[in-house]
Amino acid sequence: MTTAHDPFKKEISDLIQNELLRMSKELNLDFSLKAIDIYNMLTVPPDFSFGQAALPCFPFAKNFKQAPNKIAQELSEKINQKNKKFILKIDCINAYLNFHCNFKNLAQDLDKDISSREYFSRKLLDSYEIDKIVVEYSQSNTHKAMHVGHLRCLVLGDAVSNLLDYVGNKVVRATYPGDVGTHVAKIIWYLTHPTEKELPTKDKTRWLGQMYAEADDAFKATKGTEQEAEVKNHISEILKQLNNSSGKYYELWKETREWSLEELRNVYKWLNSYFDVWYFESECEASSKAIVKKKYEEGFFVKDNGAIGLDLSQWKLGFAMLLKSDGNGLYLTKDIDLIMRKFSDPEVTKSIYIVDSRQKLHFQQLFKIAELMGYPQASKSVHLSYETVNTEEGKPFSSRQLNGLQLLDLKNKMEEKVTKDYLERYRGQWSDQDIEVTARNITIGALKYGMLRVDNNTQINFSLEEWLRLDGETGPYLQYVHARCSSILEKIGAPSHPFTFEISDKNEQELVFLISRFNDFALQAANQNRPSLIANYLYDLAKSFNRFYENCPIKSAEGNIKNTRLSLVKITKTMIFEGLKLLGIPSPLKM
């Protein structure tokens, strides 16, 4: 359950609850409704002039056996007579109550709470609702090239983790690299057949990405030829050595695997990502088979045509195969082992798997099997799926086809463009380090916001030019607005306290209202695992600030500083900074 935290909406919900209780006593009715339930019923009117919050009274009609418009009329008359801090007035329009905000008091309250940081430490969840959640994401495969498409899972996972943590959950960030399997065996085969290829001394992951693409083509070329059986035998021997952790193929795997992991660590460092725990597919290989065999001997799993698994037909999930007839496991086999590891911590209440949408059935089967094995946490677990990242032409990026820049090459290309287009003019005024850090932060802002501005069930077309623009719905635009706020405060200084807040201009009012809604959006985004809600909120806030700045001068004609407006600049800067932080986007050092 949420805790009311917006002072305007909290005052509304408290007053409405008190009046409804009074009415129920007068009518001798057994009626109770929590203030937080009323808080969550509040909506935003379609036009700002209609008010800043609206409450439909239809839900109360059945309990009170009265017409909803009559209930609305009585509530408005009673509450309008009371002393209120954040409610200026109430309009009764048919069965709706429209609440107009006292922006002066709200702005003053926000200024105090945001400046003291109390706003951001406010508990958004009741204590009994707090979960310890394992968020698993960035399951990158080793031995292949990382391209921009792989970023979506990482960026989404970081933002979801940030949001869950912000609202009060305990979050364990986990990654699960795919470091074994047929795709790895193929490249080890290609590097050693027909003769061993010379390993590079530099640009190792770039070379490995090229070898991955060549290996896939070479393997496909053997299909239907005399070589096919021989190649399959080689692949089988490679997999055997990897399973036994011995042999020349295993040694080559260890060396090339470390190249990939080193690149992963560099990517995570660049993007300010981190993980509390690293699971590896190779760690689950042997143990997962042992688990399945043991559960089969206990009678939990069954055999079907030589394969071991579980019939989930009664849940319309088909037969879940865990060991093939040749004794080899599948992805589901290793995921059973992995979910048991996660839930070995009794405090963990669920796991969120951020994996592309093609794995829907896989996770439905996984959660049901784990639940039947005695892990109730599985029933609360979530497969948070996402769609592909495509080229500007709408073609999915592919490591096999090498149709996209490798990720670190893309990083360098974008940072060079940012420096050339936006920062070169400051050469001589800024240090080289300031230019380098700012280019890095703008690049990260472009990539992460581009990935997060739409819901995860929507395909994305990546456009380097569009995502780096300083106008429009981009990360650099938000960073620019933050930099503009910083520049104003550097030139004019902080507002002089104490002062009397004056909020009269509509642009001021809209800005205050949007600022006040930050925690509402953060909580909604966390509850729904939708960082796009915060991304869109920040874009609206940035646009509102620009309208405010263009229409509400910070200084009067006589040169006097208007402290209210300067304070709005200060708290807007803070809100954009905190919102970007939830998305994993740094503010630019300069701009």
TrEMBL record:
Keywords: Aminoacyl-tRNA synthetase, ATP-binding, Ligase, Nucleotide-binding, Protein biosynthesis. Residues 478-591 form the DALR anticodon binding domain. The keyword Protein biosynthesis applies. It catalyses: tRNA(Arg) + L-arginine + ATP = L-arginyl-tRNA(Arg) + AMP + diphosphate. This is Arginine--tRNA ligase. One of its GO terms (cellular component) is cytoplasm. One of its GO terms (molecular function) is arginine-tRNA ligase activity. The keyword ATP-binding applies. Belongs to the class-I aminoacyl-tRNA synthetase family. InterPro entries: Arg-tRNA-ligase (IPR001278), Arg-tRNA-synth_N (IPR005148), Arg-tRNA-synth_N_sf (IPR036695), ArgRS_core (IPR035684), DALR_anticod-bd (IPR008909), Rossmann-like_a/b/a_fold (IPR014729), tRNAsynth_Ia_anticodon-bd (IPR009080). It comes from Silvanigrella paludirubra. PANTHER family: ARGININE--TRNA LIGASE, CYTOPLASMIC (PTHR11956:SF5), ARGINYL-TRNA SYNTHETASE (PTHR11956). Residues 14-101 form the Arginyl tRNA synthetase N-terminal domain. GO terms for biological process: arginyl-tRNA aminoacylation. Its EC number is 6.1.1.19.
